[in-house]
Design brief:
heterotrimer, A mainly alpha, B mainly alpha, C mainly alpha, A: mainly alpha, two-stranded antiparallel ribbon, 19 helices, 2 strands, C: mainly alpha, Cation:proton antiporter (chain B), transmembrane helix (chain B)
Chain lengths: ~500, ~500, ~120
């Protein structure tokens, strides 16, 4: 029965394919293999979504050992949202990335590059489906290590210090998480998430658990690039190879947010008094600061990829803002935005990949006149930008709608939150429009007028994302239903 | 409810025709004649489709088209009701005229990017139709934003530094207001009532009371910044850098009317006239609208650039409509609806005339226009008709709507409104009549770069048509009044 | 006494802070990595400390052993072995990066690298 093995396939298949990809004799074979595996994972994710939507959570015992002693793989609505994001981003990034990878990475290193990519894919999927705290740590570190390798392959030397910074901060974040997990294990003797939650009720002395919650939350906040722990992120995205930026911008921070929500709601939530208050006060203020400062910095950034990175700092703020409301509406809004933002930002980085490939750089100066020379790419960029702003008819609008709806339930505080959301959206108008003006109203730099439109293989995935954005803006029932289920699962434990 | 009756389908077609038009125009980019024929045909087809709804609407039919649900209880849906139908009928008819005009103008001035121009024009009309026929606030909001985005490249058509700056003002104010004010108001309404449908008599009554009503009204009125109520009016003069056909159809009819139309529709169908009338906190709107009417007229007095003068005149006239609806008398609602049409005919004529002068003589400043009426008698004759309509002199369209507005103001004994209407009539005369005087009675002071007479024939045709329409609306306003009376029949 | 009795946790805390301090303040990339290693070593100590059961022996069941032997908890040791492997990989990758940075910039001082990037 293959269907019974679905929950582990997203991890096992790319994990086993990685060494094979490394041994591939030439770059095209390795690329084909990586793309196929990634597409297969996406197909599995879709299948899992259908199964989970129909019959609820799936629990899989690795090696037949029952939880909490064996390793448990759990797939619920929240996991499938994450799986769809990860595998979708990876697949689109690979398919569209052929030309830019060929341009940015030497052929002889490409099989190894794709091996690292598959490892990252396996590890991110692992984070999404793992049912115990320590496996999440291991997967998180595999994904990060693979991610460092991918980023360090960036086109110029600035990728190296950017990677180093990410490595140091990422390791500190993961170590904090490890300390937190250790403290929780010390008090409960278990690592299984469901079991942890159950046993925390019997722990008499809760101060180590409080500490554990603090370590886990802060550690993951580093990995999630929550303001003010975001300093690694803009450069890591901006200096990475274009295709890697697409993949990582969609998954890396989301995966950390995902784990953070799992821990803070499913384990610590309800385990000790005032956890919800502490969680929401700390994260809500950080989220607000991130939304405002991240967007404000993005306005002044001349490197468009870095601008998108700072924009992500703000967007992570939206996700956490929703989560920190600790209401069904708020948490669903956060999860919806996880999905939508991955789609929007992944798409924007896809467009940037095409622009960098043809224009040779991603600063505002490089983009002059791109609206005329690359109309399809810039058209997609504008539409995705509108989605980022939150224009109706796009997915971004749905996120903001649910977020503001949830904020309205909070009374006076809600008004402040809504004001922050709106101000941040207006700042998004400014930074997106700076790019639009440069691309459409300024003449291309001298000698750069012969640029042509990006290759079809980039345009098709790019426009697929644009159309998906419009589709989910018109009919958001799929992400909304999944997110509502996910929020229910998260909140049910927090009581 | 599912409304797939033949008239519902017609609504769908009304939305599809301009979109198809845009595609056709895009495909025919290499053959300008074919492209423009296609554009005119699409406009004619749209006009035919919209106008064929009118007899049914007069008989009380309200065709609907419900597509799918975007949010719980909020479908993507369309419904033809008197106010929207009037707006759509006006916009579609004037699209035909201004397409013909655009052919003359764009060729006469050798403008670049003509295909993009005609395509975006069609998309803007698509958005205007969507705004006109939306059955709920969210659908309206979606098309409202499409309208903003699709007209932005038209405003910045020239692509130089000045138009880029103007585009920034245009886009910034319209998007800022709609995201910062309009959207929160919609979400607030949804949170209170759980619905966003346009229901005769309103949906907010019983859900909101006291000062909050005034606040909500403020969010909506300023959120729909396309209505250019001061202080959110700056975008309209900025938009005048666009080619004249854009200023004429979009910034005298489609875009600005979408703004006031939204406000009127929200007051009638979301708040409910009776509810607002019974709530004192909504009273601020009359003085604000009155202030805008007077202030914009005063600024217009000091303008020497003809298009900027017309823009401030538009701001003033738009607030007439807001003022009329804010009086909250049944008759004044009819006046507001009529003024949407009446001002549309008059103002588009004025803009056409301005464009005609520019095409023939490259003159944009009033001080250069001494004696131009002798060179271009048809243009300036049409200009005179438009100007008189603005002032409200019979037998022009403007008289009809002012009549109903004053009637409504008298009904509720709103002396502020009456005073404003009278004073602004004087001001309108004060800035339009000197132009006519210059054009016909002074001798030419600035020699034109080359000898010229009237502009080319498409311009003359369009200009004459709208001037005639301005007079025709005075004579044949019966059916329109009957239709719009249905808006308030429950109130009378 | 109880405070001193938990001395290995004190050592854990001190090592953790020394490591973090080095990572933050040292401009030299290699020294940052050394700091990171101290930081991680602290965590190893935390895990090793927690598995100790009073009077417990190594968790190896001798042949025919009596039932009442107290064993230390083996799970944290297994966990930390994994964490050590992760730590080694990270250090290796970090050092490789330092080599590459040295090749590309000719220095491994962070402030110099930053100023070189700014001039670019």
């Amino acid at each position: 029965m293959l269907a019974a093995q679905y929950p582990v396939l997203p991890v096992i298949v790319p994990l086993l394919s990685a060494p094979i990809a490394a041994l591939m004799p030439n770059r095209s074979l390795a690329w084909i293999m990586a793309s196929l595996v990634s597409a297969l994972v996406f197909a599995t994710a879709v299948a899992l979504t259908v199964i989970v939507s129909a019959q609820g959570m799936i629990s899989y015992e690795v090696g037949g050992w029952p939880a909490p002693y064996g390793i448990e793989v759990r797939v619920d609505s929240f996991s499938v949202v994450m799986l769809l994001v990860i595998s979708g981003a990876s697949t689109l990034a690979l398919i569209s990335g052929k030309a830019s990878i060929d341009a940015q990475i030497p052929s002889d290193r490409q099989p190894l590059f794709f091996a690292a990519w598959l490892l990252a894919l396996a590890a991110y999927s692992g984070i999404a489906v793992a049912g115990d705290a320590f496996n999440i740590f291991v997967f998180m570190e595999i994904s990060s290590l693979a991610g460092y390798v991918l980023i360090a392959n960036g086109p110029d030397r600035r990728a190296l210090p950017a990677t180093f910074k990410y490595l140091v901060m990422g390791t500190i974040g993961a170590s904090f998480y490890l300390i937190g997990v250790g403290l929780a294990y010390m008090m409960t003797g278990t690592l299984n998430i469901a079991d942890l939650h159950a046993r925390l009720g019997d722990v008499p002395y809760l101060r180590p658990i409080l500490l554990s919650a603090a370590f886990v939350t802060i550690g993951l906040a580093v990995k999630a690039a929550v303001f003010p722990l975001h300093v690694w992120m803009p450069n890591a995205y901006a200096r990475a190879p274009s295709a890697v930026a697409v993949f990582l911008s969609a998954c890396s921070t989301k995966a950390a947010v995902y784990v953070m929500l799992r821990f803070d709601f499913m384990i610590f939530g309800g385990a000790f008094a005032h956890h919800d208050v502490q969680f929401s006060t700390v994260l809500m203020s950080l989220a607000l600061l991130g939304m405002l400062i991240g967007s404000a910095v993005a306005i002044y950034e001349r490197d468009v990829k870095r601008m998108l990175g700072y924009s992500s700092v703000g967007q992570i703020g939206y996700i956490l803002l929703g989560a920190s409301m600790i209401s069904l509406g708020g948490v669903s809004a956060g999860v919806i935005h996880m999905f939508n933002h991955a789609m929007i930002k992944g798409g924007l980085f896809l467009a940037m990949g095409a622009l960098v490939l043809r224009l040779g750089g991603g600063t505002l100066d490089d983009l002059k006149g791109a609206g005329r020379t690359m109309p399809w790419t810039m058209g997609a960029f504008v539409l995705l930008g509108l989605s980022l702003i939150g224009m109706p008819l796009t997915a971004g609008f749905i996120s903001k709608w649910y977020l503001v709806q949830a904020a309205l339930d909070l009374g006076t505080l809600g008004i402040v939150l809504i004001a922050a959301i709106l101000i941040s959206s207006l700042m998004a108008v400014v930074y997106i429009w700076r790019v639009v003006e440069v691309a459409y109203f300024q003449s291309p730099q001298a000698g750069a007028s012969k640029h042509q439109e990006a290759p079809l293989m980039m345009l098709v995935p790019l426009w697929a994302v644009v159309l998906a954005n419009v589709y989910f803006g018109l009919d958001p029932s799929i992400p909304v239903d999944l997110a509502t289920n996910a929020a229910n699962i998260l909140l049910e434990h927090a009581k | 409810m599912t409304g797939f009756d033949s008239h519902g389908m017609l609504l769908g077609m009304i939305l599809l025709i301009p979109l198809l038009g845009a595609v056709l125009v895009g495909m025919a980019s290499r053959w300008p004649n074919l492209r423009e024929t296609g554009s005119v045909l699409a406009a004619l087809a749209l006009t035919f489709a919209v106008w064929s709804l009118l007899p049914g609407a007069l008989a009380g039919e309200r065709p609907e088209l419900v597509l799918f649900e975007i949010l719980p209880n909020v479908p993507f849906a369309f419904k033809a009701e008197p106010l929207g139908l009037l707006f759509a009928a006006l916009a579609s008819l004037l699209w035909v005229v201004s397409t013909i005009y655009s052919m003359g103008y764009m060729r006469g001035n050798n403008e670049a990017h003509q295909t993009r121009f005609f395509m975006l024009f069609a998309v803007a009309l698509f958005a205007a139709m969507g705004v006109a026929f939306s059955a709920n606030l969210l659908t309206l909001f979606i098309f409202y934003e499409v309208l903003t985005v699709s007209t932005y490249p038209l405003v910045t058509h020239k692509g130089d530094e000045a138009s880029m700056r103007a585009g920034r003002v245009y886009f910034g104010i319209l998007i800022g207001a709609s995201i910062g004010l309009f959207l929160p108001a919609i979400i607030w309404t949804y949170a209170l009532t759980g619905t966003l449908d346009f229901v005769p008599g309103g949906i907010l009554e019983g859900h909101l009371a006291g000062p909050a009503v005034g606040l909500m009204l403020g969010l909506y009125v300023y959120g729909a910044a396309k209505a250019a109520v001061m202080p959110l009016h700056r975008w309209l003069p900025a938009a005048m850098v666009a080619p004249t056909p854009v200023s004429a159809l979009l910034h005298a009819v489609a875009v600005v009317k979408a703004g006031v139309f939204t406000i009127v529709k929200i007051i009638i169908y979301v708040f409910g006239v009776d509810f607002l009338f019974a709530t004192p906190s909504s009273g601020w709107l009359v003085p604000v609208a009155a202030f805008t009417v007077i202030m914009a007229s005063l600024i217009a007095l000091r303008q020497t650039n003809l298009k900027r003068l017309l823009a401030y005149s538009t701001i003033s006239q738009l607030s007439y409509i807001v003022l009329a609806t804010a009086i909250l008398a049944p008759l004044s609602q009819v006046g507001a609806a009529l003024h949407i049409a009446a001002h549309g005919f008059g103002k588009i004529t004025l803009f056409f005339a301005a464009g005609s002068i520019y095409t023939a003589s490259k003159k944009t400043d009033i001080t250069q226009m001494n004696g131009i009426g002798l060179r271009m008698p048809l243009t300036m004759g049409a200009f005179a008709i438009g100007a008189l309509s603005m002032i409200g002199v019979p037998p022009m369209a403007g008289f009809v709507s002012k009549w109903y507005m004053l009637g409504g103001a008298l009904q509720t004994e709103n002396y502020l409104a009456i005073g404003t209407i009278i004073l602004s009539t004087v001001l309108n005369a004060a800035y339009f009549l000197p132009i006519l005087y210059r054009a016909f009675f002074l001798t030419e002071n600035v020699a034109p770069p080359r000898e010229h007479g009237e502009a080319n024939w498409p311009i003359r045709l369009a200009l004459g048509t709208t001037a005639l329409l301005t007079i025709a609306f005075f004579v044949f306003n019966g059916p329109v009044v009957d239709l719009e009376m249905q808006l308030v029949e429950t109130l009378l | 006494m109880e405070i001193l009795g938990l001395y290995n946790y004190w050592v854990f805390a001190i090592l953790l802070l020394i490591g973090l301090y080095a990572v933050i303040t040292k401009p030299n990339f290699t020294k940052k990595l050394i700091g990171l290693n101290i930081f991680q070593a602290a965590i190893f100590l935390l895990y090793i400390s927690m598995d100790k059961v009073d009077g417990g022996t190594a968790p190896i069941i001798p042949h025919g052993a009596a039932k009442d032997i107290i064993y230390s908890n083996p799970v944290p040791q297994v966990l930390i072995l994994t964490a050590i492997v992760v730590g080694i990989s990270t250090t290796a990758l970090g050092l490789a990066l330092v080599v590459r940075i040295r090749e590309a910039y000719g220095t491994i001082e962070e402030d110099k690298v930053i100023s070189m990037d700014r001039d670019q």
